């Protein structure tokens, strides 16, 4: 197969960029799947709004990660200090999210059908992919 390791890393990063937009699909389904309307109704309006605002900011961060990776994947794969720093930050973000998925959240009560189970486990695989690819890119050195 023709190409340098950096070219392969750039391809892996661009796939990661696209996967960020796939995660947004899951984010869009979450309020209905977890019945946020009913489950958040007992909260004080301030807390209910705070919950939605935090969710919106997380969506913006995911959009930024995907957009930056798609737009600057070549620079992120090149091993420059800025590219490595960005990859370190994104990788650490997704590693933290993976650890929360594995050790904090107990989603079993909400995994009520095959679609939710596949989606949940699919997200876990994507989080592993993100942590791995961005971690590798963070360790890449400039050639």
Structure description:
The chain has helices spanning 5-33, 36-40, 45-77, 81-103, 114-139. The protein contains five helices and no strands. By secondary structure, it is an all-alpha fold.
Question: Layout of helices and strands, plus pairs?
Answer:
Layout: H1 5-33, H2 36-40, H3 45-77, H4 81-103, H5 114-139
Structural Rg: 17 Å
Percent helix, as a range, is over 70%
- Alpha-beta content class: mainly alpha
Distance separating the two termini: 20 Å
The number of E-state strands comes to 0
Overall pLDDT score: 92
Helix segment tally = 5
Largest sheet: none
- What is the 3D form? elongated
Number of domains: 1
Write a concise synopsis of the structure shown.
With 143 residues, this protein is an all-alpha fold. 81% of the residues lie in helices and 0% in strands.
What characteristics describe this protein?
143 residues, mainly alpha, 5 helices, 81% helix
């Amino acid at each position: 197969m023709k190409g340098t390791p950096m070219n392969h890393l750039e391809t892996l990063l661009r796939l990661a960029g696209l996967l960020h937009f796939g995660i947004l699909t899951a984010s869009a389904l979450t309020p209905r799947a977890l019945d946020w309307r009913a489950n958040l109704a007992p909260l004080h309006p301030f807390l209910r709004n705070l919950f939605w605002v935090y969710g919106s900011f997380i969506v913006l961060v995911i959009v930024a990660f995907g957009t930056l990776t798609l737009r600057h994947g070549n620079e992120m794969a090149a091993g420059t200090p800025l590219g490595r720093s960005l990859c370190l930050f994104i990788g650490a973000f997704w590693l933290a999210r993976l650890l929360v998925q594995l050790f904090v959240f107990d989603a079993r009560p909400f995994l009520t059908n095959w679609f939710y189970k596949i989606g949940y486990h699919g997200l876990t695989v994507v989080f592993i992919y993100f942590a791995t690819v961005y971690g590798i890119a963070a360790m890449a050195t400039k050639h």
